[in-house]
Amino acid sequence: MNWIDAHCHLSDERISSAQLHALLERSRAAGVTRWILGGVNPPEWQRQLALRAAFGNSVRLAFGLHPWWVAEHPAIESSLELLKTQLPHGDALGELGLDHGRRGGDEAAHKRQRHAFRAQLTLLRGEHPKPVVLHIVKAHGPALEDLAAAPPPRGGLVHAFTGSYEVARRYVDLGLTLSIGGALCRTKGAETLKQALKRLPREAWVLETDSPDQAPEGWVPPSPDAPENEPAALVHIAQKAAEILGNRTAPEILDQSRENLVRLFP
Asked: pLDDT tens for residues 110-145?
């Protein structure tokens, strides 16, 4: 066991201290004992640091400017400068990326996102590069263009990937790993993702929950005061992956996901 949730937000302000301790107990009971976080903005980075002080290296930190946050904040240069100083204290750069979906704003916001994306990628050129945690929604073309121009030297994760096999291969060819979550559990839709999963090599993907958001279909919160999604749901997602693949069990899939993640986050 000792499985790893490849992407979650334990530092989310919607999760109270009591809820956090309870959901971590349930996570450990389910065999998920390590968690990789996604960064959002400077105040959230500080909450991540507090989690590491409390839980040690079982929590791996990612500092970045989320494209939703960039879309909502016209002045980001000071935050980019702050990121330069904070990144050495984290384990990964992210979430960074491009979001042209409903939360991604207008054309001006898209331009700002791309500026922030490129600026964050330049931070990987330092002496101690980090893996990336990417958030890409309806913007794979420009994202892949920028990544090809500046390939992340330590690889990283394409968080909440739901695209086609052809798009997936382009990320894999750049040394990146697909992180797949609750979308896999949809009874209707996500067929493109399910077909991609069948064709991808097992070394190319890992599993995540993105909790407390993106609860997988069929997951029932364990109590009325629990978040709608939590790391223990990773086992539920693995069971669906096993059903889709047909020739592997959920524990085998979670073991492989852990091995892939340990290569990225030793």
From this structure: 999 999 999 999 999 877 799 999 999 999 999 999
CB-based contacts of 59: which residues, under 8 Å, 6+ apart?
10, 34, 35, 37, 48, 51, 52
**152-173 pLDDT, tens per residue?**
999 999 999 999 999 999 999 9
Q: How far apart are CA 186 and CA 164, in angstroms?
A: 16
Tokens read off for 266:
């030793």
Handedness of CA 262, 157, 134, 197 (dihedral sign): negative
Contact in structure between 72 and 103 (CB atoms under 8 Å): no
Sign of CA dihedral 66, 69, 70, 75: negative
Q: What is the dihedral of CA 235, 198, 168, 7, to 10 degrees?
A: 0
- State how far Cα 156 lies from the chain centre: 9
CA 251, 252, 257, 262 torsion-angle sign: positive
3 state DSSP class of 231 = helix
Task: Identify which of 100, 85, 95, 31 has the alpha carbon closest to the alpha carbon of residue 61.
Answer: 95
User: Given strand 132-137, what is the order of strands in its sheet?
Assistant: 62-63, 92-99, 132-137, 156-159, 176-180, 205-207
What gap in Å lies between CA 97 and CA 70, rounded to an integer? 10
Verdict on whether the full-model pTM lies above 0.85: yes
- For residue range 20-74, list pLDDT tens digits in order: 999 999 999 999 999 999 999 999 999 999 999 999 999 999 999 999 999 999 9
